[in-house]
Amino acid sequence: MRTSGGGTSGDAPIIWWVRRDVRLHDNQALARAAAGGRAVVPIFLLDPALLDGPHRGAVRRRGFLFDGLAELDRALRARGSRLVVRAGRPVEALPRLAAESGATMVVAERDVSPYATRRDAAVRRVVPLELVGGATVRDPSDVTKDDGSPYTVFSPFRKAWLSRALPRRADLYVPPERIATVPDAIASDELPDGERTEGFPAGEIEGRRRLEAFARGRAAAVHRYASERDRVDHQGTSTLSPYLRFGMVSAREAVVAAIEAGAGRDGGRGGPDVWLSELVWREFYQAILFHFPTVLERAFNPAMRAIPYRRSAGDLGAWQAGATGYPIVDAAMRQLATIGWMHNRARMIVASFLTKDLLLDWRAGERWFMRQLLDGDPAANNAGWQWTAGVGTDAAPYFRVFNPVLQAKKFDPEGAYVRRWVPELARVPTSHVHEPWTMAPLDQQALRCIVGRDYPGPIVDHRAARERALAAYREKRKETTT
């Protein structure tokens, strides 16, 4: 998609502005910049608006990104190039680099976040900028209703999305063995150090390895995805979300893998089809943010914008610390604090607990997740929180309230997930591990797990809290419909 006038002249270099595309394979921005064998100047900008912005506390996510960029630099050097790192505002750094290198154009992958849209508009006024696809398989402006209006319900969006030609492996860009060298005279800043994360090595190599392991072969986990994806005690998901977040794996390559695994061959019920639908959910959430950027500030559903949420720093702190007395909630929150990632089913459970059981504002949970998550993406994180809170798109019913005990028994039936992340409960038998307060006092003493001392008691009664939340939601809904 061309977004700027101007063009290239002769054999002048082109700047490849690396953003959320920390990879070489299937990189449409790199493909555009390197077309015709031109010299490419890869640059990553340490943008203060992002590094010092509202999510500056996300040190683990920054470390993951910086490690991925270091790997990208190594891959570029193996091809005779290198990554240039500069600190500064894009509207100042890009024209300066263009003057130093003689580049006549900047090429970048499109980003639909409100900040990115403003940033790119400003850059376009000072240097020729061309934006190409890549962050999503389909541009958010391309999947609309017949009248051009955006979809706000997933099912018809998915139908429209799938009705168009799907990518094939032949469509995926393979980087050349050599990329024209960046002149030595062009200086580069050092990448900052970042906090490392257990279980998630950064970079394109690891991302593509995970994709291969999850989706290739008859015994691959993708074929069990439909039946196992909600089990928090199993490795039934791809764990690709951090790599997709930073483009260490392309969305197109993931979709191609789903198709090659069999999506579309058995009526849409197999594991590859279900996984493909999850990838389309990601596209849907990006489209919602593109068409409705105000969702980052308020509920998508106008009828749900004035829910009388409680204010309780104590309850919020207990939820953040994994000390609510509900083992499945606490296990998930401690997993998040430890490795910066959480199973999607667990995300729904803890979000429901915060917004319904505790009746706290969903935006408090959204902000906390963005500080903690390796895969913290404004579009997906916001939409997920709004969906669970019952205030977002897709006609999500406000009366959906997850019972944390029943959810735990269904998706962690033996208690393995809880015991891993809540070691206080390691000796508690399966019959009580998800509701330890039901153990007899003598059993608690024998197991050295006294509720209220060794492990907190429930900070709220689920049944009463559910009724409180439903009453609050019904009242506000009634006010806005009369």
Question: How would you characterize this protein structure?
Answer:
With 482 residues, this protein is mainly alpha-helical. The protein has three domains: 14-135, Rossmann fold (3-Layer(aba) Sandwich); 136-171 and 204-291, Serine Threonine Protein Phosphatase 5, Tetratricopeptide repeat (Alpha Horseshoe); 303-477, Orthogonal Bundle (DNA Cyclobutane Dipyrimidine Photolyase, subunit A, domain 3). The chain has 20 helices and five strands. The chain has helices at residues 28-34, 48-51, 59-77, 90-101, 114-124, 154-162, 204-215, 225-228, 241-245, 251-261, 271-291, 313-321, 327-339, 344-357, 362-372, 378-389, 404-411, 416-421, 441-446, 462-481; strands at residues 14-18, 40-46, 84-87, 105-109, 129-132. A five-stranded parallel β-sheet has the order 3-2-1-4-5, sandwiched between helices. The longest helix has 21 residues, at 271-291. It is globular, with a radius of gyration of 24 Å. The two termini are 46 Å apart. 47% of the residues are buried.
Short structural description:
The protein has 482 residues and is mainly alpha-helical. The chain has three domains: 14-135, Rossmann fold (3-Layer(aba) Sandwich); 136-171 and 204-291, Serine Threonine Protein Phosphatase 5, Tetratricopeptide repeat; 303-477, DNA Cyclobutane Dipyrimidine Photolyase, subunit A, domain 3, CATH 1.10.579.10. Helices cover 44% and strands 5% of the residues.
